[in-house]
Amino acid sequence: MIRVWDLPTRLFHWVLVVLVCFSVISAHIGGNWLDWHMRSGYCILTLLAFRIMWGFAGSHHARFANFVRPPAAVLAYLRQMRDGSAPAQAGHNPLGALSVIAMLLALLLQASTGLFSNDSISSEGPLAKQVSQATSDRLSAIHEANQYVIYLLVALHLGAIAYYFFAKRENLIVPMFTGDKPGGSLVAATDNGTLRVRAAILLAIAAGLAAYVVTR
Predict the structure, then answer these.
(1) CA–CA–CA angle 172, 21, 199 (5° rounding)
(2) Model-level pTM?
(3) How many percent of the chain have pLDDT more than 90?
(4) How many domains does the chain have?
(5) Containing domain of residue 133, as a range?
């Protein structure tokens, strides 16, 4: 077994899952829960800012440079999957990388538009007054529509997990809890105290940036 996912990456993943679920539920309940929906959105914005920075400062498999591939590499991987010759990947494979980037962008769009949104009744994002009513309404419409993009991406993500589990006999969930995967030939990720202190500093910076934006 080797360490693939460092602790900050794993915590980011599972806390994001909880927050996204809570955001969906609180939005559908409505009423006073919309205040908590917005707070959850601020936390998601903080996590996304952290993950973007972690994509440059994290451990090997968390860095964008080590898993984001050009279109040609993605197509080549699809051909390898079709003929059964796709190599084992420690972190995200080229196709999974597209899913990660798409999810980050969709959530970033959702959190950002939420800052300017309104529900046409009594609730509005902290920056809604910084733009015109027409602009706020347009961003609210994007915020409403984009949730279905997120649902689709989540469904694709869960479908990929099921495919790997049943078709390839590879469990992708357990390593996201433990951080470890079998395979001595794979590149191991750093996951020590120094890395975790770096993550804590970046999270504090991300939280500060989010707080600055929502309290302007």
Answers:
(1) 65
(2) 0.94
(3) 77
(4) 1
(5) 2-197
